[in-house]
Amino acid sequence: MNLFSYFKGDRVIWMIVVLLSLLSLLAVYSSIVTLAYKHHQGDTAYYLFKHGKIILLGFVLMYLTHRMRYTWFSRISQILLVVSVPLLLYTLSKGGTNLNDASRWIAIPGTGLTFQTSDFAKLALLMYVARVLTQKQKELEDFKTVLLHIMAPVGVICLLILPANFSTAALLFMNCLILMFIGRVPFKHIAKVFGLALAGFMFLILLGTLFPKSLPRLETWKGRIVSFVSGVEEVDPDKNYQANQSKIAIATGGVIGKGAGNSTQRNFLPHPYSDFIYAIVIEEYGSIIGGIGILLLYLILLFRGIRVASNSQKTYGTLLSFGLSFSLVFQGLINMAVAVNLFPVTGQPLPFLSMGGTSLLFSSIAVGIILSVSRETETGQDLEPTEEEKGGKLATT
């Protein structure tokens, strides 16, 4: 029996996700010691099995998604985008679970689980932007069209995410700009949009400075950026504790690493199982296998995603595959850059490696959509007109 008869699409992408997931089990099991002692009397198996169940659920979602026609997500994106707005508003209100002045999660009653609404909104927005770019190909020279049909929803979603999660809002906005560039939006329009966004952000900073309660995390953002740019951690280590502990982990790991399960910095890093798991991987597996090896896997994932995009016969398939591939890998590169102190601390998890949650589940769905594009290209379904194309609503080139 051929296993790949059930798993269609790009096999390299399947293998990369499997490899990252297996490594994630090892890295998470090694890095949750302190967390286990703090909350479950040292029972590391509790978190390992919890993470393992989320990985399995992620694979189920990935499998189911990759069996769907990716063109369905064009219409679904409209519904998801509309739903994401009240969810984000609810999260920002007292309904959201608060941590460090950031309301990012909604508690799911009776499950003990939390739901990060920005992950949901991010996926919905990228699918929606790909849809609009496909439908408006002949109208993109008009700046009003770009502003009204693309940047209005992008601005609303990013603005709702920004107060609690600046890094996610900024990355999502940049992803949308890159997708617009690939979707043939004139560069002059993209420059105008970037200028308007920058002016708006500066206004928010001014507003947050004058009225601190309106933007409670403003001081956190300032502190991280100032300490990173000025290098203050070298004078006062407490100013950038996380980055310093991460650098220690990388330095002590050396070329070949300490070996699986032998990390010491997991006892000092605040979030070694999520935000700084890349540092733990390098500490245990070395800079060659753990550092360069993981980086190469993400770069290959991006390459294969772009390959799927270029092979698609439909504009929507191309934009969807590129947008989701770039978003996943871009987030991964930012996480790795933070771990090696090339970027200020952001709190972005490493896709498929960090301890499971809604980020892992939505990353699995994103990969499933990319695999759906790949599957239809391989089977020739990509050449068949959809109902929208028959009605002349979607471009096919």
Description of the structure:
This protein is mainly alpha-helical and 397 residues long. It has one domain. The protein contains 14 helices and 3 strands. It has a 3-stranded antiparallel sheet. Helix 1 packs antiparallel against helix 11. The longest helix has 35 residues. The radius of gyration is 21 Å and the shape is globular. The C terminus is likely disordered.
Q: Number of domains in the coordinates?
A: 1
Give the C-alpha Rg: 21 Å
Helix content: 55-70%
* Element-level helix/strand string: HHHHEEEHHHHHHHHHH
Q: Give the strand line-up of the largest sheet.
A: 1-2-3
Labels describing this entry:
globular; 66% helix; 397 residues; mainly alpha; 4% strand; three-stranded antiparallel sheet; disordered C terminus; 14 helices
Produce the secondary structure layout.
Elements lengths: L10 H21 L1 H7 L4 H23 L5 H21 L4 E3 L2 E7 L4 E4 H19 L7 H19 L4 H17 L4 H24 L7 H13 L10 H13 L23 H35 L3 H25 L18 H22 L7 H4 L7
Antiparallel strand pairs: 1-2, 2-3
